[in-house]
């Protein structure tokens, strides 16, 4: 049995904001709680929106917080990130041959795949808030799925499916249909794991199970019809836990106690 901790949407800032919670305080609390709950975690995956503005100072602050953790960390980028600034701060992060922040690692016969769905450069908003897998990224994924030793869990910041929230569905992975065509041809993807929506959501899309996790920072209210991309509420912060057994991939969610 292997357990993973999944954090998403840290939205780090360079300094504590004048109002609202400090992402650094929230992440520290989430890491403390997660590592107390899962002290034997094999990996911490952070599925993008590492920073709020993608600036170098925010990445530097995050790097300081993550230094010295007892568990390896897999970092991914999201629509609030800046690929070049991220790689300057975390130069050891593996990339594919075309420079996208994509990689995989095998835990036994389970292949964990980490995708780069950032639709930039150019960094032009609101378009760059949508997710996209270009032909190069799709071809890379095709090869990685072909060579997988067994089942596959795919992590990607933007959900490759609708979640029922109008605003966030507009900002989902816009070529999710092509993504599902591709993984359907391989038939070995056990689960997709995303963030971006800032809520816990689970289900199955075209037969593939999915999990979307809430943020250690701020949450989106349960308002299916809102068109406000920035809507937020006081729901408690949280994270996800994946347990890999011989027969199953189990999904847990956990809230972080606020002191
Ligand atoms: Fe986010
Ligand atoms: Fe996002």
Overview features:
single chain, 259 residues, alpha/beta, Purple Acid Phosphatase, chain A, domain 2, six-stranded mixed sheet, 6 helices, binds fe (ii) ion
Protein model, in words:
With 259 residues, the protein is an alpha/beta fold. The protein has a single domain, classed as Metallo-dependent phosphatases (Purple Acid Phosphatase, chain A, domain 2). It is built from six helices and eleven strands. The protein has a six-stranded mixed beta sheet, covered by helices on one side. It has a five-stranded mixed beta sheet with strand order 3-2-1-10-11, with helices on one face. Helix 2 packs across helix 3 and helix 4 runs parallel beside helix 6. The protein starts with a strand and ends with a strand. The relative contact order is 0.17. The mean pLDDT is 97. Bound molecules: fe (ii) ion (FE2) (2 copies). The site of one fe (ii) ion (FE2) has 6 residues, from loops.
Topology of this protein?
Layout (H helix, E strand, L loop, with lengths): L1 E6 L15 H15 L5 E5 L8 H11 L6 E4 L6 H7 L13 E5 L2 E5 L20 H12 L5 E4 L10 H5 L5 H11 L2 E6 L6 E5 L2 E5 L25 E7 L4 E7 L4
Parallel strand pairs: 1-2, 2-3, 5-6, 6-7, 7-9
Antiparallel strand pairs: 1-10, 4-5, 8-9, 10-11
Helix pairs in contact: 2-3, 4-6
The structure holds fe (ii) ion (2 copies).
Largest sheet entry: 6 strands, mixed
Backbone structural class: alpha/beta
SSE series: EHEHEHEEHEHHEEEEE
**CATH hierarchy class name:** Alpha Beta
User: Radius of gyration, Cα only, in angstroms?
Assistant: 17 Å
What are the distinct ligands in this entry?
Answer: fe (ii) ion
Low-confidence stretches: none
Q: Give average pLDDT, whole number.
A: 97
The end-to-end distance, rounded to whole angstroms, is 32 Å
Fraction of residues in β-strands: 15-25%
Total count of strands? 11
As laid out across the biggest beta sheet, the strand order is: 4-5-6-7-9-8
Q: Treating each run of at least 4 consecutive H or I residues as one helix, how many helices?
A: 6
Indicate the CATH topology: Purple Acid Phosphatase, chain A, domain 2
**Into how many domains do the coordinates divide?**
1
Which superfamily, in CATH terms, is the homologous superfamily?
A: Metallo-dependent phosphatases
The CATH architecture can be given as: 4-Layer Sandwich
Task: Tell me the overall shape.
Answer: globular
- Helix content percent band: 10-25%
């Amino acid at each position: 049995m292997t357990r993973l901790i999944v954090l998403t949407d840290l939205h780090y800032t360079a300094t504590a904001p004048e109002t609202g919670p400090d992402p650094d305080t929230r992440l520290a609390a989430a890491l403390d709680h997660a590592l107390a709950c899962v002290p034997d975690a094999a990996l911490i995956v952070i599925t993008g929106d590492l920073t709020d503005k993608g600036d170098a100072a925010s990445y530097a602050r995050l790097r300081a917080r993550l230094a010295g953790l007892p568990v390896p960390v897999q970092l991914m980028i999201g629509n609030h990130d800046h690929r070049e600034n991220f790689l300057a701060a975390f130069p050891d992060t593996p990339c594919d041959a075309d420079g996208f922040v994509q990689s995989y690692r095998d835990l036994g016969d389970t292949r964990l795949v980490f995708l780069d769905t950032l639709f930039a450069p150019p960094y032009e908003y609101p378009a760059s808030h949508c997710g996209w897998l270009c032909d190069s990224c799709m071809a890379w994924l095709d090869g990685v799925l072909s060579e997988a030793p067994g089942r596959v869990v795919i992590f990607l910041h933007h959900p490759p499916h609708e979640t029922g929230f109008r605003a966030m569905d507009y900002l989902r992975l816009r070529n999710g249909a092509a993504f599902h065509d591709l993984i359907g041809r391989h038939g070995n993807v056990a689960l997709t794991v995303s963030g971006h929506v800032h809520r816990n959501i689970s289900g199955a899309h075209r037969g593939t199970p999915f999990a979307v996790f809430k943020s250690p920072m701020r949450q989106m209210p349960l308002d299916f019809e809102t068109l406000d991309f920035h809507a937020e509420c006081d729901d408690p912060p949280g994270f996800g836990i994946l347990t890999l057994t011989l027969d199953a991939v189990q999904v847990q969610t956990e809230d972080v106690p606020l002191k």
